[in-house]
Amino acid sequence: MSLSLTARVAENRHRRARRHRRLIGLLLALIAAAFVLTLLLGQSFTPPRDILRTLMGEDVPGVAFTVGQLRLPRAVLAVLAGVSFGLGGVAFQIMLRNPLASPDIIGISWGASAAAVFAIVVLGLKGSSVSILAVAAGLGVALLVYGLSFRNGVAGTRLILVGIGVSAMLESVIAYILSTAPAWTLQEALRWLTGSVNGAQLAETLPLLAALAVFGGLLLSRGRDLEALRLGDDTAAALGVSVGRTRVLVIVAAVGLIASATAISGPIAFVAFLSGPVAARIVGNNGSLLVPAALVGAALVLVGDYCGQFLLPSRYPVGVVTGALGAPYLIFLIVRVNRSGGSL
Amino acid sequence: MKPHTLIADGLSAGYGEATVLDGLDLAIPPEKITVIVGANACGKSTLLRTLSRLLPARRGKVLLDGKSIHHLPSRELARTLGLLPQSPIAPEGIAVADLVSRGRHPHQGVFSRWRREDDEAVAAALAATKTEDLAERPVDELSGGQRQRVWIAMALAQETDLLLLDEPTTFLDISHQIEVLDLLTDLNQTRGTTVVMVLHDLNLAARYADHLVAMANGRLHVAGPPEAVLTEENVRQVFGLQSRIVTDPTSGRPAMLPIGRHRMIAEGLSATNEDSA
Model-level pTM greater than 0.90? Predict the structure, then answer.
């Protein structure tokens, strides 16, 4: 061996980092390609030249509506919601060291969704006040689940079981509110039950973008502490992580992301749950999972929505497609965790 | 560099309703190897967890260099005092060098770049634990002994002057136990690291300790050099076990031979074990 050990350590570290960056680049390229595809191809093909002209603000007959009003807002919302679900989901999974501990399994998405339905149907609210209520309800449910599963500290399994119970309760609340609203269409009902980016408007993506900047930034700034938590709470504390404070910040940030997205798109089924493990399969263990999971989330919603609209015999909201992917994986995980204990 | 002092002063701690440590006083001698022994559930792990602030003290305090650790910033504490818990978790598929580099956490800021001294610390930790050839292997493929050396390497990369280890030899066969204890002794002798560890095996404890601490019922029963601590009387009081103490011909340290109810070659040696722990 001609290289000194220090040089070898440095070289290996660089290699891991390069590999990590390359895979992130690949995911970005995939999302960009899917994004362009959804703009170009819908019921009909729109030439790229017309899309560019529309994006520049020109009024191209026909295209201005299909692309500017339908496809573009839809794709933007799909990306933002996917990033939010992916980030929020993986943060919970890492923090509790269990892929089943994602916010859509432990009731947080359902809390936000129930609050959004209540705000819209019963209170007649719109826009950012719905989002604020959804975030508050998400935090409330997080606190409730945390409190109910607290006994000499929080054990992951107990928290997950309590969360599944709370989810079931909240789902029935949503179903009840929807059933008492006579004017509610099936399309809209499905948004709150499985999630959809149907009828997206650019204006409503702005609060989500703001939430993503605030909560996503907060989460990324705790990325290193979150990585240390993967070694166990005791090891992380021994490495100088304030476990309690990190946990609170991560919960607030992740709930903020999940709830803000849910308030607009509904709880898009299993995106929060799937993104982390899929990202882990793709990028392996060469760096933080936060950004890869966010990108996988965006890709899942974007591609899932496209499939639901154009590749299936009938039109389905994106949540139906991601749900069809997520449910078998959930069963697989429960079987596997039952055998081994499991981690991300 | 001034050696660090670590002192527990009237320390009480516990979980939920249960009080595990009950007014314990202990001074860790600097730059020595301290081994803590005691019966199951006497509070050994709780003591290590409280000394390293993983668990808050209910009463009393822990003093590092005369200052209460409960007021120190987490990172600062983690640069002086390291702890290897009983069952740390290795993320699936993580490479050895990557895991060891996690030990640099307290030396890095939120967004600060990885520096040359970080690489040097990781390399030194790999070399000291003879894990350099495993550097690129996934941790989950290693044997128990190799894995334990990797965890110790991570604690070494943290470059703390005090190192606390909770049963670093559990689940290891005897040759790997000796390997780990020799490694910690090397570390103590070459770097002057103060080592504090919990061990189950009294004979290994007596052989490797400079300072032996016996705990019973959440308190310090007796502490001192192994010759003074590992006595038939103390074994009876702490473990409720009759025993004979002989001198280990290799190390000259005391060694304990337990006496049960069976397999006696001579009448009169047999004794009833009384539960005095």
Answer: no
